[in-house]
Amino acid sequence: MVADVARSENLIGAPLRTVEAGRFLTGHGQYVDDLVLPGMLYAAFVRSPHAHARLGAIDTSAARALPGVTAVLTGAEARERASRLHTPLNVPHYRDVGAYPLAWDKVRYAGEPVAIVAAESRYLAEDACEAVVVHYEPLPAVVDPAAALTPGAPLLYEELGENVLVRASFQGGDPDAMFARADVVLRETFYSQRQNGNPLEPRGLIARWTPETGELTVWASTQVPHLMRSALAEFLRLPEHHVRVIAPDVGGGFGSKMLVYPEDVAVCLLAIQLGRPVKWVEDRREHLLAACQSREQVHEVELAATRDGQILAIRDRALCNVGAYSTWPTTGAMEAMQVGKLLPGPYRLRHFAWETVAVLTNKAPIGPYRAVTRPVGNFIIESLIERLAREIGQDPAVVRRQNLVQPDEFPYQAITNLTYDSGSFVQAYDRALALIDYDGVRREQATAKAAGRLLGIGTACYTELSAQGSASFRSRGVVNLSGWDAATIRIEPSGHVTLRVGVSSHGQSHETSLAQIAAEELGVAVSDVTVLHGDTAVSPYGMGTFASRSAVAGGGATLLAARALREKLLQIAAHLLEAPVDDLELAGGRVGVRGSPERALTLREIAQVAYYTIFRLPPGLEPGLEVTRAYDPPLGTFSNGAQAAVVEIDPETGAVRILRWVIVEDCGRAINPRVVAGQVHGGATQGLAGALYEEVRYDDNGQLLTASYLDYLIPTATEVPAFELDMLHTPSPITMGGFKGMGEGGTISPPAVVANAIRDALHPLPVRLNRLPLTPERVLEAIAQARQAPAASPP
User: What angle (nearest 5°) sits at the alpha carbon of residue 725, between those of residues 719 and 726?
Assistant: First the structure.
């Protein structure tokens, strides 16, 4: 045993500057579009202008005849050489409607790729796309989920007989009995808008085929290199060991780069056909048009409560607009299967029923986006709590606090069969109220109102289910994705440490955080650890980075591997130093005998024995200093937090000005608080974008109305407040290291916080702010409607 061996300084928990920062800040990052290979061609896609149409003949002769054009590939040709992107899911009533690499019989959304062109430059490829003549037979489109379910609605898939991808439902407790005895019953309909991921770097890849060996190498801006390799091998009908995927520096993903897209397969098909590298990098219009979208949902919700503010039961009926296809690997059922399950958040709810329908429409397919459906559920329950407080004449903070899971109730078994392993729900909320000076804001609010200014304070609490293990995926019917991950750690003959991991960074600072774990366990400096990731020929097989899993799954695997290597290192040192293991201390890159500083060996000296003079090793011990370990987390661990904001409303324009914003985040044992702060700030910014600005809009014919940043609004630095962050640390009792995930927590509550702050500023007007984003027009509309309704009771 090595547990009692003295350790080096505590690096886990240290707010170190990130190793990656120097590379990125000095412009030395290398992204897909920075790569140029000999003989490389450039691809562009012919995309459907119609949201729904049958495909007729495609005339590519003019395009093929253009100088510099090397190939044009259509859907019918691609179908002969590649499979449909199957999206399996083992749940009742689910329909697998994965797309083909290129449409061949029918197009189902505007922007769907129908042909791909390769040319000597992107300019030539785009010109050639204009020369491709596609004959379409337009069909009626359906974009509204409710309309898509009506009898006689246009069908995306005639063979299904309806526009339903999956139906799901759940009931826990006895909601009907609770509604029968309730003092207060509230009913609301909530609308969550459609959004895009919009990472700084768009999607892109380079595919290179080596005919001599039959090997395909793909450089891709992906979150999941190994999963992408498995998918490409399956869809291209290649042996998986002949496919290599390399993720160079990746400029953000937010879930959108977790998917393998039809375009990825089509680019590879061209590279295989031509025997030359082919590059494709989407432009911003393509991203808004065809990259995965998310969160368009309609919820009809009822809440039952007592007169003193205790929530008794909730019933939720939801429609999730999943677009035209199911996506790989998460499927289009992802949101519909999770939104009800996660809606209760940090609140005690013993009676709950939900049902969802995932509806197929003529819009771009949905996929994961940071925090997935949790901002929608949080917006719903926090809005209902706010209204409940007004209905019973109580301060919203009091009602919110009394319904939270209390400190003595952990581990808490939620009604949705999730176990909250640990948390600081009440403490985080109290801390947020103290930071924002809740009572002081109330006094300031009264003074401002007397002067004609409308100030409001909004608060919300959240949980973040993170790092779901394999058992969680299995329970949800997922068959092409798992929850474990792996790490390989080696002390080189030089004494330097190399850590190779299956998780893949795209902004999470893995090269720093995971190095801190390894360095602390092995008694070296962080600068003595090199972290390698993102290359399927280098890293151990792993699931990649998504769902706030890297710290728990990747960090857990790193911890296990480092501890195993540490044990071997100390075995060798004890043998060489002729001392018991328990008498050794490991620090500063040296193993020494406690109390005898002259009796010590450097890691390099020990490594030289392990690799070269192996006759000096303890009997029976294998040569080398390299260990691989896998770690499969439990069902999941919960981070939590609370947010509060003060806003000012202009009643003439509906404009919302944010005056202050505080965040309290509890992600267990923080590996690097500086990294945590960056993740929380970024997440909160994206949450704020969903609250006030971003919305994918289509017209009734399925034409995208937000195809540029002139129409799809993203907040700039001038719109984002200076977030004030505080951290609590409640280690998980069920994960390695006590780690919890936190990459999505900041995103969850901003829509609820902003909505509640606006409601508070306009009180006693009974404004109903149930449709996101909360644009000035919608605020003005809510004010106008509220002025025609009776005023609510004062708090």
Answer: 165
